Every structure is written in structure tokens, then in C-alpha cells.
Amino acid sequence: MTQHIGIVACSAEGAALCYRTICTEAPALLGPHAHPEVSLHSLSLAEYVDCLERGDLDGVADLMLLSAGKLEKTGADFLICPDNTIQAAFDLRADPRRMDS
What we know:
Blueprint lengths: L4 E5 L2 H19 L7 E5 L2 H9 L3 H18 L3 E3 L3 H4 L8 H4 L2
Parallel strand pairs: 1-2, 1-3
Helix pairs in contact: 2-3
């Protein structure tokens, strides 16, 4: 059984490319037409941009954490974030106890 992937989305372009890549690459590993379960959560890009324009990485991290919490409730086994800009805020809220699990 494959793992359930959660996508913490920021930009529509990054999230769509990530989802499409998972679904197009997975059949090589899982078999024809197969891909893992994928859930995506996206807040409005405007919320991220507002924080970024103010230089508020703590606010960005809180938005990411909000999405992460919702994805955790869907049963995602792990999360990915296909956005270089907001990943800069990841370490502000990362729980080191969960990084190895």
C-alpha cells in the first residue's frame, strides 16, 4: 500500500505541477494508471503574499502550519511543499521530533 501524500500548496502553478508530477511518475513504480493517494490544501495566495511583502516569515510559517494541520486530519502520512519562497519559513515551525519519523 502506498503512502498518502499531502501537498501544502502556495501557488497554483507549483501545486499543480507537483500533483501532475506525482501522478505521471507513479505508474513507473506502482503500475499502469496507479498513483498514491494525494490531498492538497491551499490557502489564498494573497495571504502568503501579504506576509511576504511585510517580511513576516512567522506569518508564512503559521499559514503553512494551518495547511499542514488540515492535511494531517485527512490522514496524510507526510507532507511536501512545492514552493521555494515559503519553504524559507519551514524551519520556524518544524518539530524536530517528527523530522525523523
